[in-house]
């Protein structure tokens, strides 16, 4: 074995002579490698989401990390990766904690309110009288949950044992997510620290397995992740900032918290619309019908512009991916892969579209059709 070759990166060992194994042994080795690969996936199945998130953050942050590493090379392996991991915690994890803590407090308050409502009934809210057929709605409210003991027909499961089961399930899921978060941050640290080595290994592996098309696909996937991060994360934060200012002007209770929730939900297409409807409902319950209408209309306008013009330009422009495939990739990715599918879905669609364009010859690439294939298709 030797490293003295012009085509291989530094540290890559290549053969000095032809392999002595037979064709049957090659097939056996291939089957064994596939089985080992599947066994590895099965072993890591619980941690694959954490590794996928680490890869997404690593791809998105790598250009910035490399710029800083060139300026301060002495801190490339310890300080800079640690600072980037800390930045991810402050920008993405801390806001989720800031939302989760008030929600936990509200859950406790809601449990106490349910107990009081069980004993005393629930008074109809004032805004019902202002709605069409408001008097009939008030009668229905009084009939269903307005009298003592009637709310138990709705909340029986939560009051009589179901709540404890739900609480245990939430606690287990919370601990599980925290563990995955820890492994994601740890994986991101090592991915950034050893970024150059990892990139070289991926280049060698993709070239050996797929040739030039493998490198093209990798570049397309990376471009897709960068475009998706810009189109989802940055646009979502922008929507949250704009609508958060609107919440303050409209007098929404806990406007900063709702603005933060809107920014997080806005990272998913049409998620900002859901957040705005919730805020509009809060204002309606508070008796501010006009402010609720203004917030819903303004939020729908901002979400429409972001989802139909800004996001397609950022995501599709990075990979020349039509908006319909961007949207299908995002929504299908969430369905298939969970939240990390926000980034995996468009990346898969971008790679497939690239292969199709090269296959039919609309884009130059290693798998373009041969001239005789084009002539035959035209004659046919």
Structure commentary:
The protein has 380 residues and is an all-alpha fold. Among the domains are: 1-43; 47-193, no CATH class. It is 78% helix and 0% strand. It is built from 13 helices and no strands. It has helices at 23-43, 48-71, 79-120, 134-144, 152-193, 195-210, 212-250, 255-265, 271-285, 289-319, 323-337, 341-360, 371-379. Helix 2 packs across helix 5, helix 9 packs antiparallel against helix 10 and helix 11 (323-337) crosses helix 12 (341-360). The two termini are 51 Å apart.
Distance between the termini: 51 Å
Computed Rg: 27 Å
What's the mean pLDDT score? 78
Structural class by sheet pairing and helices: mainly alpha
Per DSSP E runs of 2 or more residues, the count of β-strands stands at: 0
Low-pLDDT windows of residues: 1-5, 157-162
The global form is elongated
Order of helices and strands: HHHHHHHHHHHHH
**Percentage of residues in helical conformation:** over 70%
Q: Count of helical segments?
A: 13
% residues in beta strands: under 5%
Which descriptors would you attach to this protein?
380 residues; disordered N terminus; 13 helices; mainly alpha
In short:
This protein has 380 residues and is mainly α.
Helix and strand layout, with pairings?
Blueprint: H1 23-43, H2 48-71, H3 79-120, H4 134-144, H5 152-193, H6 195-210, H7 212-250, H8 255-265, H9 271-285, H10 289-319, H11 323-337, H12 341-360, H13 371-379
Helix pairs in contact: 2-3, 2-5, 3-5, 3-8, 6-7, 7-8, 7-10, 7-12, 8-9, 9-10, 11-12
């Amino acid at each position: 074995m030797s490293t003295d070759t012009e085509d291989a990166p530094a540290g890559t060992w290549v053969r000095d002579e032809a392999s002595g194994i037979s064709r049957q042994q090659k097939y056996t080795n291939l089957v064994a490698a596939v089985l080992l690969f599947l066994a590895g996936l099965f072993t890591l199945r619980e941690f694959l989401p954490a590794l996928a998130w680490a890869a997404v953050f690593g791809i998105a942050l790598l250009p910035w990390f490399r710029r800083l590493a060139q300026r301060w090379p002495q801190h490339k392996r310890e300080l800079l990766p640690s600072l980037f991991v800390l930045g991810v915690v402050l920008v993405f994890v801390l806001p989720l904690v800031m939302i989760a803590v008030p929600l936990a407090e509200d859950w406790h308050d809601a449990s106490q309110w349910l107990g009081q409502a069980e004993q005393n009934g629930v008074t109809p809210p004032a805004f019902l009288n202002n709605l069409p057929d408001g008097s009939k709605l008030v009668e229905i409210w009084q009939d269903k949950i307005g009298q003592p003991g009637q709310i138990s027909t709705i909340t029986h499961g939560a009051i009589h044992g179901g709540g404890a089961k739900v609480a245990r399930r939430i606690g287990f899921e919370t601990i599980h997510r925290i563990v995955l978060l820890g492994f994601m941050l740890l994986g991101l640290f090592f991915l950034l620290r050893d970024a150059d080595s990892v990139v070289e290994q991926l280049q060698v592996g993709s070239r050996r397995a797929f040739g030039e098309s493998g490198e093209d696909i990798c570049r397309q996937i990376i471009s897709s992740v960068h475009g998706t991060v810009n189109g989802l994360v940055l646009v979502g934060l922008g929507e949250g900032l704009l609508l958060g200012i609107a919440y303050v002007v409209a007098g929404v209770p806990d406007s900063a918290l709702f603005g933060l929730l809107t920014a997080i939900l806005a990272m998913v297409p049409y998620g900002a619309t859901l957040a705005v409807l919730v805020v509009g409902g809060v204002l309606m319950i508070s008796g501010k019908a006009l402010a609720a209408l203004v917030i819903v209309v303004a939020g729908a306008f901002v979400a429409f512009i972001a989802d139909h013009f800004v996001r397609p330009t950022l995501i599709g422009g990075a990979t020349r991916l039509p908006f319909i495939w961007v949207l299908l990739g995002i929504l299908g990715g969430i369905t298939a892969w969970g939240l990390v599918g926000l980034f995996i879905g468009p990346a898969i669609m971008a790679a497939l579209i690239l292969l199709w364009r090269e296959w039919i010859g609309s884009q130059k690439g290693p798998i373009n059709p041969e001239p005789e294939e084009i002539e035959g298709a035209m004659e046919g």
